[in-house]
């Protein structure tokens, strides 16, 4: 199984009036983590287009477990969880420098035909990332 890890530092522009990372920023962090996962797997945007598909996020379930503050070093980890016919689920977590889980999420994506914009079977090259082959 292909997993990915990305380390970031919380910037002042990501903090809200409560003095911690704004909840919407975590969605951005998770997106960065997914992009890292695709890149680590060699599935860059153009590669997916060459396969005739796009991947579209259709659902994100996120649990906010611990606040994160400006200057903190965070690690975004992405793991393939399950693959279906036309969709797949990635599990993601954001941990602080003490390896405490601050955020965990499950993200469902659908593979969509680049021309028709309709859901299609997950291509083999993407499917393999869930089997460890």
Would you write up a description of this structure?
GO terms for molecular function: fatty acyl-CoA hydrolase activity. By secondary structure, the protein is α+β, with helices and mostly antiparallel strands. The chain has a single domain, classed as Hotdog Thioesterase (Thiol Ester Dehydrase, Chain A), CATH 3.10.129.10. The protein has helices spanning 23-40, 45-50, 124-127; strands at residues 4-9, 53-64, 73-83, 87-95, 101-113. A five-stranded antiparallel β-sheet has the order 1-3-4-5-2.
Annotated CATH topology? Thiol Ester Dehydrase, Chain A
Distance between the termini: 7 Å
Q: Can you identify the CATH superfamily?
A: Hotdog Thioesterase
Strand adjacency order, main sheet: 1-3-4-5-2
* CATH architectural grouping: Roll
The number of distinct helices, counting runs of at least 4 residues, comes to 3
Count of discrete structural domains: 1
Helicity range of the residues? Answer: 10-25%
Number of strands: 5
CATH class assignment = Alpha Beta
Radius of gyration: 16 Å
- Uncertain runs are none
- Rounded mean pLDDT is 96
- Tell me the structural class: alpha+beta
Q: Tell me about the biggest sheet?
A: 5 strands, antiparallel
Question: What is the molecular shape?
Answer: elongated
Our estimate of the beta-strand percent is 35-45%
- Oligomeric state: single chain
Organism: Paenibacillus roseus
Keywords: Hydrolase
Family: Belongs to the 4-hydroxybenzoyl-CoA thioesterase family.
GO molecular function: fatty acyl-CoA hydrolase activity
């Amino acid at each position: 199984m292909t997993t990915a890890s990305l380390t970031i530092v919380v910037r002042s522009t990501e903090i809200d009036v409560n003095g911690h990372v704004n909840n919407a920023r975590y969605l951005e962090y998770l997106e960065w983590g997914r992009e890292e996962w695709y890149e680590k797997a060699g599935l860059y945007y153009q590669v997916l287009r060459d396969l005739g598909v796009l991947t579209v996020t259709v659902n994100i379930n996120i649990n906010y477990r611990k606040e994160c503050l400006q200057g903190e070093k965070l690690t975004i980890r992405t793991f393939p969880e399950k693959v279906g016919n036309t969709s797949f689920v990635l599990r993601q977590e954001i941990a602080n420098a003490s390896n405490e889980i601050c955020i965990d999420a499950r993200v469902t994506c659908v593979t969509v035909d680049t021309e028709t914009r309709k859901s299609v079977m997950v291509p083999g090259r993407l499917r393999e990332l869930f089997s460890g082959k």
